[in-house]
Amino acid sequence: MIIDRRDALAGMVAMFGAGLYAPIARAAKAQATGISDGPPSTPVFSAQQRAAVTALSERVMPTTDTPGAIAAGVPAFIEKLLADWAAPEDRKPILAGLDAIEARSQQDYKVATDKATPAQQDALLTLAMEDKLPGGEDFFDKFRQLVITGYFTSEIGITQEREYLPVPGRYDGAYPYSQVNKVFSS
Amino acid sequence: MADKFDAIVIGSGVSGGWAAKELTEKGLKVLMLDRGVMVEHGEGYDFDGKPAFEIPSRDIMPKSLVDSDYFIAKHGYVSPGNRKFYNNDRLNPYAYGEGEKFYWIRPGAVGGKSLIWGRWSFRWSPEDFEANKREQVGIDWPIRYEDLAPWYDYVEKYIGVSGSRENLPQLPDSAFQPPMQMNIAEKWVKGRLEATTPGRKLINTRLSNMTEDKEAQGRSKCQFRNQCGRGCSFGAYFSTQAVTLPAARATGRLTLRSDAVVSNLEYDPKTKKVTGVRVVDAKTKQAEVIPARLVFLCASAMASTQILMNSRIPGSSKSHFDTSGTLGRYVMDHIFRVGISGEIPGMTDYIEYGRRPGGVYIPRFRNVGGEEGIGFRRGYGYQGSARRDPAQPVGFGASMKQGMRKYGGWKFGMGAFGECLPYEDNRVSLHADKVDRFGIPLMRFDVTFRENELRMMRDARTEGEKMLRAAGLLNVTSDEGEHVPGDAIHEMGGARMAADPRQSVLNKWSQAHDAANLFVTDGAQMASISCVNPSLTFMALTARAADYAVKQMKAGAI
What we know:
The complex is a heterodimer.
Chain A: H1 5-16, H2 22-28, H3 47-60, H4 74-85, H5 91-109, H6 118-129, H7 136-152, H8 155-161, E1 163-164, E2 172-176, E3 184-185
Chain B: E1 7-10, H1 14-25, E2 30-33, H2 63-69, H3 126-135, H4 145-159, E3 161-162, E4 176-177, H5 184-196, E5 203-204, H6 240-250, E6 254-257, E7 260-268, E8 273-281, E9 287-291, E10 294-297, H7 301-309, E11 338-344, E12 350-353, E13 360-362, E14 380-390, H8 398-403, E15 407-418, E16 427-435, E17 441-446, H9 451-471, E18 474-480, E19 511-512, E20 515-520, H10 535-554
Parallel strand pairs in B: 1-2, 1-10, 2-6, 3-4, 10-20
Antiparallel strand pairs in B: 5-13, 7-8, 8-9, 11-15, 11-18, 13-14, 14-15, 16-17, 19-20
Helix pairs in contact in B: 1-6, 1-10, 4-10, 5-9
C-alpha cells in the first residue's frame, strides 16, 4: 500500500508542531488551506482593549427587547476575525481607534473606557463617529461594521433579532410586512 | 487492464453527467472521470441548510485565504460554505499573466459547474444558429434549431425547467414547469416597462429550479431557500449529483472515479481513433492509460481544449486533433459587468416571503425582427430582480437596532449579458515550458473583447437606463465594471464544430473530424455563443451526440 504523501506529512506537522523545518511545512501545504476555527491563534487585544471592545460593541448593538452584542458573542467574533480571518493591516485602524478612545476616556472621565458609564461610552463613540478623535471616523465605520456583521451572523442575531426562516417552502412576492414586523434571516 | 469499459466520459459536470446517463442507459459500460474530489448528493453538501454561525468564519471568505488559494475563484462567488466545489487556484494555476487577462473560474469537485452554476436555462433561437452564416462571421453552424429542438424537449422534461410561455421568436419556449412568480414590484416594472418601451418584454426567469416535484427521481420542488450554491439536498435544481448521476448509477453500468486528472488522449494515427485516456491520480500522482473504445470529452470548454492540445503527435507540438489548425481558437465568453438599477416607488407594505432563486429577464431586442444599422452585431439580454434589503440606519445604539428591523424601499437591478463574436486570434495555447503539479503544460490565454462587444455594452447601459427611467423608476444609475473574458463563467469555443474538416475540430455530431470515436460535447464545441446562458444547450447537444454515438457503435462504424 502506498502511503498517502500528504497524510504522512500532516502527521509530521502534528509531531513537530511549530518547530517544523520550513520546506517540510511548505510541502504539507500542498493541499487546500483550511479555515481557522476555535479561539484566536494570537491575541489581538490587550486586556484593556478587549474590555473596551466588549463595552463598546454592546453600546453599538445594545440589549433591548432582544439580547445585545455581548450575549451574541460579538467581542469574541471581532478578535477571532482580526486574528485569523482578516488581513493583518485590518487590525490597525481598530487598535488605533481603541487607543484614541481610551486616551479620551482617561482625559475626560479619568477611567478606562470599559469603566465609563454607558452615557459616557456613547459620548466617546459619538466623538469617533464625528471624527473628533484621531482616526475616529475610520475606526467607527469599521468597528460598527464588525459589530453588525458579528451580530447578524450569530445565533442570537439570526434567530432572535430576526425572523429565522431556514426553509420557506414557498414564495410570496406580496407578503404583508405587518405580519412579521421584522427582517427575515436564513 | 483489459477493455473493461465501452466508453470513458471525461468530466462529470453538466455535459459529462448527461453523457454518462445517456450512454449507460443505452447499455454501455461507462467510466466517468473527474479531476475533483468526490461529493455525494446530500451527504456531501457539508453546509446545506446551515445558518452562518454554523459555517466556518461565518461564511465570509477570509481575505488571506482568498489571496492565497482562491484569487480567481473569488470572481466566481466562492465562500466557506461552498469552497469544496471550487478549484484551488494556488494548486491548479494557469498562465494568463503572460497573455491577456482571463478569469478561468473552475470547479474542483465531482459534479463540476453543475454544483455552482446560476441555473438560468434558455433555448437558443433559430437566429442564433443562422447568424454566423448570414453575417459571414466565424463559420456556419452545421446544425439548425430544428436539429436541437427535440433534444431540448428531451432534457427539459427530465431536469425540470420553470418558466413562462412567451412565444418570442428570439427566445423559444421550453417544455416548462410553472414559472416562479414575479414579486409585486417586478409586476409593476413589467407593466410600466412594456407600456413605455413597446416591443420590449420583461418575463419570468427560466430556471432549472423546479416548481413541481419529480417523485420518480426523488427530487422535490424548490423550497425557496436560495442557497443553491451549497448543494441542495432537495434536488430541486439540476446538478449531476441530483439528476444524471443517480440515473447512470441505476443502470449498474457506471464506474465513477474522482481525483482522476486526465492529461491527454492516446491516439492511433493508422486507425484514426483514440485508443486510451491517460489519467493521473491526483492523490498518488501515479499515471495510467485506460483503454477506450469511445470517449466523451466533457471536461469544460477550456479543459477539454487543453486535453486535446496536450494530445500531441510524438516529437511534435501539434495535436492529433488539430489537422484543421483551428484547435484553441475562437474562444468566447459572454461580456457583462454593465449594471443598471433604480428605486421603485411605493408598495412598501409588502415584502417577499421566501428567497426566490433567479429573478426576471429582459430578452434580447437588438438586431432582431429586422433591426439593423445600430453599430454592432448580435445582442444582449438583462437578468434582474426587484427586492427590498434591510434598512441601513446610521449611527449606533437602540435606535439603530430598531431601525434595522425594517426594510428599505423596493429596488430593481439588472445586468446585461452580451454575445461575443468568434475571433480566430482569441485563442488558448499550451505554455512552452511551465507545467502544473501533474506535469501538464499550463494553459495560456490570449483572449480579449473587441469593439463589437464594447459597443454592445455601451448600448446596454444606455438602453437600460432609458427603459428604467421611462418606466418610472427613480434615481436610476448605471455602472460598468472591467470586462474580463471568463468572468461570466460562460467561456466557450476552442474546438468548434462545422461541416468542413479543414476549418473545424468537430462535425455536426460533436464528433472529432480526426477521430470517429471521440466526441466533445461541452462548451468547447460552440461556433458562436448567443447571448443566453449556455448550459441547457450543452445538455441537448450531449444527449444528441450520445444517441448518435451509440447508433454508430451498434452499426460498427465506431
